[in-house]
Amino acid sequence: MNRSTREQLQREIDRDRRAEWLMIPFALLAVAVIGVFFVVREVWFV
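Request: output the structure for the sequence above.
Response:
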């Protein structure tokens, strides 16, 4: 594997690593929204 290929792969790995870290806040937001749905359902329909 030559140097340019290695550098390109490293850039791609770094970009993917940043994208994975951005998934954490989105996952927390999704859990919060689901929690709100459950609370609203329990309060409103019971």
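Helices lie at 3-45.
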